[in-house]
Amino acid sequence: MNEVALLYNFLIVGGVLFALGLIGFIVRRNLIVMFLCAELMLQGVSISLIGWGRYHGSLGGSTDAWGGQMLVIFIITVAACEAGIAMALILMLARRIGKLDSAAWQNLREDGQPIYVDREVPEERTEDRVWPHLTPAGIQPLTDPDIIIHRPRV
Amino acid sequence: MDDSLRHYLILIPALPLAAAVLVALLGAKVLRQYSHWPIILALAGSFVCSLAVLSDVMNASKTAGDSGYEQVTTLWTWADIGHAYNLKPSDPAVPATDAGWRNFRIDITLRADPLTAIMLTMVTFISSLVALYASGYMHGDRAYWRFFAYIGLFVFSMTMLVSVSNFVLLFVFWEAVGVCSYLLIGFWYQKPEAAAAGKKAFLVNRIGDFAFTTAIFLIWCTYGTLNYHDTVQESGIRGQESAAAENVTVRGVLSPSRIAANDYATGAIATAICLLLLLGGCGKSAQFPLHVWLPDAMEGPTPVSALIHAATMVTAGVYMVARCTPLFAASPTAQLVVACIGGFTAVMAGLIAVTQFDLKRVLAYSTVSQLGYMFLALGVGTFSGVTSGMFHLFTHAFFKALLFLGAGSVMHAMGGVIDMRQFGGLKRLMPYTYATFLFGCLALSGVFPFAGFWSKDAILGAIHDKVHVIEHEQAHRASHASGADNSHASGEDYAHGSHAATPGVLQAWSDEQLATSRGVYQWLYYGAMFATFLTAFYTFRAFALTFHGPERIPTQAGHHAHESPPVMTMPLMILAFCSFFVGLLFVGNWRSNWGVNTFVEFLGRTPSLAGGLIAATRGVPEFHIDVAGQSSLIALAGIGIALFLYLGHSHEAQSLQRMWNMEGVRRATDPAWIARLEGIPAVAFVSLNLRRAGLGFVVSFLGFVLGLFALILSVPIIAATFITPYRLSANKFYFDEIYNALIVWPLRIIAGVCAWIDRWIIDGLVDLAGAIPPAIGYVMRGLQVGLVQFYALAMVLGMLILAAARLLWSP
């Protein structure tokens, strides 16, 4: 395959990932989802890094340029660490107020600025308060029809 | 250099420094009331080393040639800046042989020559005795250890000052002794007067120091070196060492080779250097116009007054000018100024001392006056002048230290009271102090055969000779003008006696210069004679007021009123012995010529005095019996008048004071005396007969004229009430008030204006700059909403703007 065309493919995938992550980060209010979106952006950049790494490596004539991939492995490692810290922080925040809503945290604003919330998160309905149970290991789980219905909402 | 001499030279300053550090570290907690021991031992050790140096230099200098004897030892290099300055050979101010690139190099170098050896011996001897005395005088003081730490530091600085061989180092230790002086004047800093006096001394000295530094800069720019001695410098420009990397000798400013060649800048630059050096010396040695600090410095402990403000530190200016004699010899104008300042100060301070009632202040003004004498001698500019100035410095150190220590002994006994009106007749109470003080007074007054007699007469003789030589040159020129044939006759004139001196120097002078300087030196001679009278008068006035008359003891004395302990009287006795013998000791030949002074002979082997222009004035010394006789008679007259006025006949003193206050003249302004005229029989007879003859209007008219005369007379007299001679003298010629009005207050006003500008304009600008970020922040505050998404959006927008800018603007 032509190196330039390959680079384009890499960049398109990376760009799409980045754009999705960006949009998600700005649009969503759930802290965990926002964090996932940030990871998405990071991976989009990583992919473009791999693409560029390969492209520039091939310019010198070699077909096996591993520099970009090697860097990305490092990035993933660091991102995993970040994820651990970020999840811990999110857990702390969620424990404080029982919500994952990022709009609930606006303490960085200047004095006198109003709290900006465009729409409140709807109250949890009673029928939604059904929690999954951990499945005993090693045994075919008995699927409760209720769980099958409600799981996607959590 | 001889190794032992080198070690002695290093030990002299090192011992006091080590002792000072020891006392400073351990004094407060460990040594306490034994703090004086390290200092006394170190100073005694320094004195022994100084004697060793003195004898070494004496022996070695005997065989030295015409250029004098000097030895330098380099300890380490303090500063070395390669190729710091390029002296242009085209510059007329620069001696041609000095042109070229010069390194700015300062070695810590100690020197040994007769001048240094004498100063070292004198300083360490006096300071050892004063430290011994102070261990008694300062006993029980809260900060006993601090006093001795300062003394050690001072002696270190002073010995370094006289033994370094570089102008910058001279200045460094010049400042160091100034700091010690400041610390010791303000030793009792709880007393506001003492703190103020310390500050005053420091500030007045800054003026002199400013001039001194400027002089050093000028010396560097003119001679390209600041060392006294010759140094070796690698030649070649930096980076091209390979080309001609041979060593060149840089001739020191005061080195024998330069003096022998007389390679000194002349004219305006020489005069500028000398006058600036002189002003520096005036600050340290308390000469007019910078003399005002020394009397106030008497607020310090009395041993300090004796050591620093009488015997040693204040003579630093004299030492410096004597050391720089070759520079001064290049500028007759500067020499004349030196002489005038010295002569004026001698008379002025003497006049002030006459009316002071504070015993220490009388001695302080006496010190100023005697330092004026020394400057006068240095300003004469002949060999005999400079050496006699140094000789007077040497002898003065002994008897002035003695007098101050005696005053301290009195003060100790009187419970800190020093006002001579409050005590008197202490003769029986303090016999040792009385006897030693009398020796000091006789020496200071210049009575034969005490030390002061020899040195003072040497100075007077030097001025006398100078006038004589100038007259000689004038006569020589006159004979030249009258006929060319007489030219060898004048040559014969030069051949005889010491008066044949300075042909080379004086021949360069113009006729007007000769006439002016002849007049000036003649007047200075009379002034010096008058100062001799004043010295004798105020010395014995103080002596009579303190020790004679009815016995009076102030209440503050309490049970203290007794003779001081032996530890204080012993130094007094040693110094009294010295005051008697230190002049006699140097009279070389008792049979024929008393003018042959071995001290002067020895001092004359200093390089600065041995060669060059000054050596040309070195004739056969003569003892001027006429000058000595005159000055002795004048001194005896002063002593006699003082004793007559103050020895129990205080009404004579009061009538003298009335005379000085011009009370008789003031009475003339009261018109009542005109009416009283008629009480005189003769006048009454005339006026009565005139009235009878119907000519009463004539009497009235005469009375009217006399009344008018009295009225006109009264105007200056009333004005003069404030400036009678007595008041002028008692108020120190209002120098402090004049300085306050002319310098202190204008400076205060300027400082106030500057403070206002600083507070409201400079600070205002800074505050304005500080106000900008809050203003911007106020505008941008609305953007801080605290919503994560908003920040993310702002980042994206910023990124988009960057990307757009990159796309739209492609280089």
Walk me through this protein's architecture:
The complex is a heterodimer of chains A (154) and B (811). With 154 residues, chain A is mainly α. In chain A, 59% of the residues lie in helices and 0% in strands. Chain A is built from 4 helices and no strands. In chain A, α1 (3-27) runs antiparallel to α2. The termini of chain A are far apart. By secondary structure, chain B is mainly alpha-helical. Chain B has helices at 3-31, 36-62, 114-137, 144-163, 167-185, 192-223, 256-261, 268-284, 293-296, 302-311, 316-323, 325-329, 332-353, 359-380, 383-413, 431-445, 451-482, 487-495, 503-507, 511-547, 566-584, 598-603, 607-610, 612-616, 625-646, 650-660, 663-668, 672-676, 681-692, 696-720, 725-730, 735-780, 788-808; strands at residues 71-87, 100-112, 231-234, 247-250. Residues 485-502 of chain B have low confidence and may be disordered. Chain A binds chain B through residues 22, 25-27, 29, 34, 102-103, 105-110, 112-113, 115-116, and chain B through 781-782, 784-790, 792-793, 796.
**Quick one: overall form of chain A?**
extended
Helix content of chain A: 55-70%
Proportion of residues in β-strands of chain A: under 5%
Rg of chain A, rounded, reads: 22 Å
Indicate the low-confidence ranges of chain B by residue numbers. 485-502
Mean pLDDT across all amino acids of chain B: 84
What is the number of helices of chain A? 4
Work out the helicity level of chain B.
55-70%
**Rg of chain B, please?**
33 Å
